[in-house]
Amino acid sequence: MARAFISIGSNIDPAENVRAAIRSLARQTRLIGISMVYCTDALDRPEQPPYYNCVVAIEAAVSPAEVKHGVLRPIENSLGRKRTGDKYAARTIDLDLIVYGDLAMDEDGIKLPDPEILERPFLAIPLFELAPDLVLAGYNRRIEEIAARLPQGGMKPLKDYSWLLREEASRGFGAKRGCQE
Question: Active site includes 142?
Fold first, then answer.
């Protein structure tokens, strides 16, 4: 089994869609960690609503291609993701495999580790939270160093929401809770 990391982002009903994506991942994989969820402005689109971004860690028993096409894409489809030619379009959910064990690859539309980790704080910082000793395969760079040099000013931690996601994940998501507000 490989430890893999999935980035999650949404700016259309983000609280609902990030939670639904994590719930679906937990049903299909062994979820082993959820980073802090951050609220960030949409890249190059100031008119769009902000994103909720986080990274989750899973244990993957299948290949990177199967994770991407057999797990992540079906979840995106089930949550109404519409792919267009606009790389920065608003979206219900965006799930990307960003690290898969110590594998470095660039084939079949999959680049691992995702090169955007090197420049996007909303990927590097949550990844650092989950795996502070990680060295990115193929880059031979420590995630600690990458995260430390990236600006964090545009990232607002959603502490209560993150706590709720982790709490629900620890209880298996569908478990009934006592008093609800």
Answer: no
